Amino acid sequence: MKKIILIDTSNLFYRAFFAIPQNFISPKGQIVNAVFGSCSVMLAILKNEQPDFIFFFKDTKEKTFRHNEYNQYKAGRAKIPDELVQQLPLIDDLLASFSLPVFSYPGFEADDLIATAVQKFNAPQKEFLILSTDQDLFALVQENVFIIQNTKGGNFKRIDSKQIKEKFAITPQQIADFKAIAGDASDNIPGIFKIGKKGAAELLQQFNTLENIKNNFHNVPAKFYKKLENNLEKALKMKKLIKLNSSVPLSLDLTQGSINNISYQKIDYFLKNLGFNALRRRLINIPLFKKDQDQMCFF
Question: Is the pLDDT assigned to residue 180 strictly greater than 50?
């Protein structure tokens, strides 16, 4: 079984920024908390998951097709902190130090690119682990596709379809329908007024999809009838907005993400320049770098 890690980099950096105090600075006086935290997670992935392939996926500054369809998409989100913006060049350097591909595509989000990678590479004997806390990506979960999220101690919890069912009372394939009905404040998706998550799950358990609700509207329970009557078409439009696009025209080749492309020397050089000696010491405990043990030097 080949293990493929797909990393939502924007999500990774953002979480690292808020997980580590902002007074974490380099010897040169730079704020580097997001860089340190992101690199720490990456080293934990290499050690604890021991993948065969890793790919990075980034959002772009340009508006996406979703903004063109709905100009209030993600409206109201807090501005990215200046202290994180200042670290973005270093974060690019961090990614470069791993010698692995970083994909982005104007008009699409990292989620769409990850969906495209799963679609392209999916085959028997391949296991996909998607590093992200973005619930939109739950839609990709299936028998051999999992969401992973880092926990304290450098370990990772896996989220599978059973856990999604337990949390939301729906299947991964119903995520877009669920959010279109219940709403999603993080993306400014309004949902259908006064139905909520419990009502959305109840409707989807009975009808499976929004399209089936529309086609069998005469069977909709009375308590939902009026709420849906004037809002169903809007919810269907929101579903198209939420649904991941797995057809982004990326030039993807599995060999690009081989961990054999990773250079111990490049990562060590990057960490040394930022004074991350604690992370440098962790390199030697990673099986991939055992052969480089004689090159370890912290001064």
Answer: yes
